[in-house]
Amino acid sequence: MSVESEIHARAAAVTGLDDLISGRISEGRLEQNTTLPAIVYNRISAVPVSAMGSDVGLTPTTMQFGLYAATAAALRTLREQFLLAFQRWRTVSGSPRIQATFVDNMFGNPYDSDVKDYHQLIDCTFWAED
């Protein structure tokens, strides 16, 4: 299992978020003509924590999420559900076990006139136990 698989499982398990995106969460980029709302994500970094020459078994993994919606109101709703699902989220089992999740940044919600959608970027760090 991976942090990414835990993210997919969490998105599917949180009813409010899954009701909005219906499984439309993917790695990489938003495919053309994707039904909105949708979420894409990319791994930004994952560096194991070392202390005094040994690993402590934790890897903070930073992911950037792109939230996409057709209207500003739909984007606000998607953002609220995303934060309910992931802000301060942790798991009690699984591999990796997520010890804590922190929202690091949230960047505006510009309207993209080329593709006619609203989007917002949110960076989260998942502290994963190896």
Can you summarize this structure?
This protein has helices at residues 3-13, 15-21, 72-86, and strands spanning 25-27, 38-46, 50-51, 54-55, 58-69, 97-107, 111-112, 117-129.
What portion of residues is helical?
25-40%
**CATH fold description:** Alpha-Beta Plaits
Uncertain parts: none
| Biggest sheet architecture | 6 strands, mixed
Radius of gyration: 15 Å
Per CATH, the class reads Alpha Beta
Strand/helix succession: HHEEEEEHEEE
Number of helices: 3
Q: What would CATH call the homologous superfamily?
A: Phage minor tail protein U
Number of strands: 8
* Global outline: elongated
Please give a structural write-up.
With 130 residues, this protein is of the alpha+beta class. The chain has one domain (3-129): 2-Layer Sandwich (Alpha-Beta Plaits). The chain has three helices and eight strands, in the order H-H-E-E-E-E-E-H-E-E-E. The strands form two sheets. Strands 1, 2, 5, 6, 7 and 8 form a six-stranded mixed beta sheet that branches. Strands 3-4 form a two-stranded antiparallel sheet. A hairpin with a 2-residue loop joins strand 3 and strand 4 (54-55). Helix 2 runs antiparallel to helix 3. The longest helix has 15 residues, at 72-86. The termini are close together. The model has no long low-confidence stretch (mean pLDDT 91).
For the structure shown, list the relevant keywords:
130 residues; alpha+beta; Alpha-Beta Plaits; six-stranded mixed sheet; two-stranded antiparallel ribbon; 3 helices; 25% helix; 42% strand
